[in-house]
Amino acid sequence: MFNFIKEILGKDGITHDGAEKTIKDDTRLAASVILLETAYSDSEFSDEERGLIVDILKKDFEINDEEARDLIETGTDILKNDTNKWRYTNIINNSYSNDQKLMLIQSVWELIYADNRLDKYEDHLVHRLSKVLHIPHDQLIEAKLKVIGKRE
Q1: What Cα–Cα distance (Å) separates residue 9 from each residue in 56, 97, 99, 118?
Q2: CA–CA distance from 10 to each of 28, 44, 82, 135 (Å)?
Q3: At 138, which CATH number?
Q4: 122 in Cβ contact with 112 (< 8 Å)
Q5: Alpha helices in 1-152 (DSSP H)
Q6: What's the pTM?
Q7: Structural domain of 55
Q8: Where are the alpha helices (DSSP H) in 41-86?
Q9: CA separation for the pair 120, 127 (Å, rounded)
């Protein structure tokens, strides 16, 4: 499985062939790694969180259940084997518009609040993620409030 990951991302984690499909695959995998890192950040990866990640991936990338589960499986392997998980934010920074980054941040907030509580590790992760993705604090909080508002 790890060889498959290297094949997709290349040695340094970023494709260099410029192929549109490969870039799309990279961004899908990068987003799934970020979502999975969020789900695991409070040490409780529930079935509800797994289902939510599948739903997010299906909606955001217009893929089916099997493709979403494959991304989760590959992303989980990355989390277990790759010491530089933050390289995937570079893929997002290089591929996503600001609006797409905000949608990802909102998805992260949805995942965080799946269990109706904010863990300190989740909070730290989303703030760090927003800084790495160059999302201003006011937009981070706006995304959080949108998610909280939907849940009420």
Answers
A1: 22, 20, 24, 32
A2: 15, 31, 13, 27
A3: 1.10.3680.10
A4: yes
A5: 2-9, 20-40, 47-61, 65-81, 87-95, 98-112, 120-132, 137-151
A6: 0.82
A7: 2-151
A8: 47-61, 65-81
A9: 11
Dump pLDDT digits (tens) for 25-56.
789 999 999 999 999 998 888 899 999 999 99
Are 59 and 100 in contact, with CB atoms under 8 Å apart? no
Q: Is the pLDDT of residue 7 over 90?
A: no
Q: Which residue has the tokens 């518009």?
A: 97
pLDDT at 24: 59
Task: Report the number of distinct structural domains present in the chain.
Answer: 1
Contacts for 134-142: CB closer than 8 Å, 24+ residues apart: 134/93, 134/98, 134/101, 135/98, 135/101, 135/102, 135/105, 139/102, 139/105, 140/105
Q: Cβ neighbours of residue 41 under 8 Å, at least 6 residues apart?
A: 119, 121, 122, 124, 125
